[in-house]
Amino acid sequence: MPTLSHVVKSVGLVTIIAAVGKVLGFGRESIIAAYFGASSTADIFFVASLIPTILFTALGSGLQAGVIPIYLEKKAENPRKADEFISVLGSFFMLVAVVMTIVCLFFTKPLVMMVAPGFSGSELALTEVLTRIMLPSLLFFTLAYMATGVLNANQRFLLPAFTSTAQNIVIIVATVLFAAPFGVKGLAWGFVFGAASQFIIQYPSLKKYQVRPIFSFRPYKQQIINMLITFYPIIIAALAIQLNSVVDRIIATSLETGSVSALNYANRLLWLPLSIVLTPLITVLYPSIVERAIEGYQSFLTLTLKGLKSLLFLAVPFMIVMLISGNSLIALAFQRGAFDASATETTYVAFFFYSACLPFFALRDYLMNAFYALKKTKVAMYSCLIAVLLNVLLSWGLSRFLGVGGIALASGISMFLQSLFLFSFLWLKTQKSDKAVFTDVFQESSKLIIIGAIIYGLALWIHPITLKFHIFVELVIVSLMVFGLYILFSMLFKVSSLQALRKIRSK
Question: Fewest CB within 10 angstroms: 197, 381, 395, 417, which?
Fold first, then answer.
């Protein structure tokens, strides 16, 4: 089992790589925004990408989360047999991906009409064309997620972390080279080539583990059936998570033009701290949480709650900066070319409400992984299905009053309630004599709420003064002020997550 210092080192390296990928991701979004803005064409592209995105995320995320527990269990028994079974599993899902792609190619038109009910006839026609171009990416994403699961299970996080960098570089190049001569179709082809690059960069490392195509399924029939019984709740949960995005975009198509793309840009910006700081922590901790779950529940719970406190601690200052300087972040990231001040204003409405719920986006993903490690996959699945239902009702109701902001707020509320449900389940499952480990979580959360409220009030009061400076300078001043005060107050309040980080640094 990896030591704490090894985990911290891995998180640090993955964070640096993720930061590079995210910078490139912003370069990609900025270029797309410059070429297409928050326009009808941009709306069409983002809706067209929904169908392949839903499919590969449902299949790929389920694979990545499900592969690690299965692989580690079999590896403990027989490493060679583990590699062999993962090869069979990968081949099986490759075949599933191909079949799903072919079926969707036949039924593209009704699928597009379902996800874009507010589009006109010409918009639906172009959406259908773009969807057909991007559907083959499902196979590449499935292979990439499979490779990521195997490499992460073997404590190899660097190459999987590079996948977003490779994809972003390819999409940037494709947009620059093909957007002018081929329009949005060039961007769609870049999406496909970007998906292929995610698997290609991982393939050399994957060969070390003897993972190869094996299409002889008969000898493994019972194992595949048992695996599918384990996997189906994970896949349904991943599909339900994607349905939240579908619901958001379907409702956004009935709002003013540019609402779908504004929602997309706001969501991308939200994932800046999630992808750079919080997701690497979740990714690196997951194999260790799986190993602790195999050891015993109490060992699992101790590590899980430590990770939960760390996520909350890291999320709060980012949330405050985004709430205070959201408009400036959007302008700096996207406002150029076809993306004008009006688009910034629309995007900011969604971004503000997304930012207010930032910690719950991270906590939901983290707690879902914890339940997969515990093999409580059905509990995770039911929580996702309930969250989707809540999101549908809230999005429809709140968007009538707040527009795209209502859709973003609905997503945040559903994330909060789902996180609360999963946390409460852990609380109820824990025996009374062992519930002392939760005390520190409640104390830490209370401290962070108080600290966050104080700093937000101070930053809100000082912010008008910083607006006199250039956007970039304003962001630097606000960020330094928020993070400086956050560390200071965390020391004064003796926040345990900060003290733990200081101990690790001193070793």
Answer: 417
The per-residue b/e assignment along 215-231, b for 16 or more CB within 10 angstroms, e otherwise, is eeeeebeeebeebeeeb
Rounded to whole angstroms, how far apart are CA atoms 78 and 74?
6
Question: 217 — phi, psi (to 5°)?
Answer: -85, -20
Dist CA 142 CA 382 (whole Å): 24
Q: For the purposes of burial, counting CB atoms within 10 Å of the CB of 331, is it exposed (0-12), middle (13-18) or buried (19 or more)?
A: buried
Please name the amino acid found at residue 142.
T
The predicted-structure confidence for 433-455, as pLDDT tens digits, reads as follows 677 778 888 888 899 999 999 99
Non-local (6+) Cβ contacts of 310 within 8 A are 281, 497, 500
**Whole-prediction pTM value?**
0.72
45 neighbors 29 (Cβ within 8 angstroms): no
Candidates 148, 152, 108; CA nearest to 126 is 108
Name the nearest CA neighbour of 366 among 412, 418, 427: 418
Q: What is the residue type of 10?
A: S
The number of residues making up the chain comes to: 507
What's at 155, amino acid-wise?
Q
* Residue-by-residue DSSP string for 141-185: HHHHHHHHHHHHHTT--HHHHTHHHHHHHHHHHHHHHHHHHHTHH
Q: Which of 441, 381, 390, 452 is nearest to 417 (CA)?
A: 390
Report the alpha-carbon distance of residue 259 to residue 405 in Å, rounded.
10
Distance CA(178)–CA(181), nearest Å, equals 6
How many Cβ atoms sit within 10 Å of the Cβ of residue 415? Answer: 25
Please answer whether residues 90 and 211 qualify as being in contact, where contact means their C-beta atoms are separated by less than 8 angstroms. Answer: yes
**Amino acid, res. 262:** A
- Return the closest-CA partner of residue 225 out of 101, 405, 89, 426: 89
Task: Check: CB of residue 108 under 8 Å from CB of residue 116.
Answer: no
Q: How far is the C-alpha of 261 from the C-alpha of 488, rounded, in Å?
A: 39
CA 117 to chain centre: 26
d(CA 500, CA 495): 9
pLDDT per residue as tens digits for the range 299-354: 888 888 888 888 889 889 999 999 998 888 888 877 766 677 777 888 888 889 99
- Please give the helix or strand (H or E) that residue 250 lies within, else none: helix 221-252
Tokens coding 202 = 């991982």
> Is 401 in contact with 413 (CB distance < 8 Å)?
no
Residue with structure tokens 């995210």? 22
Show the tokens assigned to 189. Answer: 């082809």
* DSSP state, residue 278: I
Take residue 368 and report the two structure tokens written for it: 């879902």
| CB atoms closer than 10 angstroms to residue 370 | 28
